[in-house]
Design goal:
Helix content: 55-70%
Largest sheet: 6 strands, parallel
Number of helices: 19
CATH superfamily of the largest domain: Hypothetical protein af1432
Strand content: 5-15%
Mean pLDDT: 88
Number of domains: 2
Bound molecules: fe (ii) ion
Order of helices and strands: EHEHEHHEHHEHEHHHHHHHHHHHH
């Protein structure tokens, strides 16, 4: 009999807590198949997820591509309506009659398990695999397991003895007084799937770099979420929009249409999405070209945009390694590469990029 591990959730957005939970579960048992099931409308939430199903599934695919035999299932999306786990398990039991089903949940879900729809059916049908979401809650989880085993017919309950990572999608969305929520909803509705996936990777990588180099992690995350907010709008639309907002473009700006979105993106994030933070606005406004005297956050976003984990051009691994050790050197190397690439392609070089290079080389020579 094969073993299938089922991990459902809203994944809105996926975060390192999800990854950690799954990795810990995979240490407990050997599974023949792992099914990740993004929910359509979660029963405990009244709203649809901020990110579209395609965006969430795409991000999950990227994040978990190294895990063997993992599939992203659209079973709840295809069924539509509220996504009750019992309905999903019922359907999967029919689909895979010879599989033993394991259901992975976080400790918060486990402690409120008796509130789930048809929970006694679920307890009979699946082995629960419970991962801790809060430090020091193992005793409480053990007691709850004993309680459930004594009261109901249970197929099995496995508790993962793991270090908890306290991270929730709702926390990520709640940051910036609803700004992240608005950014995610914008990503879902105005960016294509590839751009949405890239955006989520930039946000996560920028946060990682911020943690590493002592910058504000929340600002880095938000700058990543918002940096490409106008990237999927046409150039004509962006030019008209900037004109309407009284922003004049230089000849150099107009000569490099691919950089237009850093200017329109900063204005759009401010005017339409309510971003007021000057540091984040500055980082968005130079994330493609760079500029002289870049701040730490400017550098983090500039670097994260070009070196996020799914970028796969030839030089990227070397750049990543360099920048993760010394951000200033990484940005300098990235600027060199960008200038070389633009020259090879015979494209016009934006003066800000040259200014950024000169400025950072000066800094490097000063700092030995
Ligand atoms: Fe980007």
């Amino acid at each position: 009999m094969g073993k299938t591990l089922i991990f459902g959730g809203t994944f809105d957005p996926p975060h390192k807590g999800h990854r950690h939970l799954l990795e810990e579960a995979l240490k407990q048992e050997t599974f023949d198949r792992v099914l990740l099931i993004p929910s359509f409308i979660p029963p405990h939430k009244s709203h649809r997820p901020a990110l579209s199903f395609e965006a969430r599934a795409g991000i999950l695919q990227d994040w978990f591509k190294d895990i063997k035999n993992l599939e992203i299932s659209d079973i709840e999306q295809s069924r539509g309506g509220q996504s009750y786990t019992a309905d999903t398990i019922s359907a999967l039991s029919e689909q895979y009659p010879h599989e033993e089903l394991y259901l992975l949940i976080g400790s918060d879900m486990f402690l409120s398990f008796e509130a789930w729809s048809r929970f006694t059916f679920l307890l009979k049908q699946v082995v629960l695999v419970v991962g801790s979401r809060k430090t020091g809650d193992l005793e409480q989880l053990r007691a709850h397991r004993e309680r459930l085993l004594s009261l109901y017919e249970c197929k099995g309950i496995i508790l993962c003895n793991m270090e908890a990572i306290e991270c929730a999608s709702s926390d990520l969305r709640a940051r910036g007084e609803g700004l992240a929520e608005r950014a995610l909803s914008h990503i879902s509705t105005h960016l294509d799937v590839a751009r949405a996936r890239h955006t989520m990777q930039v946000a996560d990588y920028a946060r990682y770099l911020a943690q590493k180099f002592g910058a504000d992690e929340e600002k880095a995350y938000l700058s990543g979420l918002l940096h490409d907010c106008t990237k999927c709008f046409s150039h004509e639309w962006q030019i008209d929009y900037l004109k309407e907002k009284g922003i004049s473009l230089s000849d150099a700006d107009l000569a490099s249409p691919q950089i237009l979105h850093q200017i329109s993106g900063a204005i759009y994030a401010k005017e339409e999405l309510g971003l007021e933070d000057q540091e984040i606005l500055s980082a968005i406004a130079c994330h493609t070209t760079g500029k002289a005297d870049m701040s730490l956050l400017d550098r983090i976003l500039f670097f994260a945009d070009s070196c996020e984990p799914t970028r796969n051009y030839q030089a990227v691994e070397g750049l990543r390694k360099c920048g993760e050790q010394n951000l200033r050197e990484g940005v300098a190397a990235l600027l060199e590469r960008t200038i070389q690439y633009i020259n090879e392609k015979n494209q016009p070089l934006h003066p800000q990029t040259e200014e950024a290079r000169v400025s950072i080389l000066k800094e490097l020579s000063k700092n030995g």
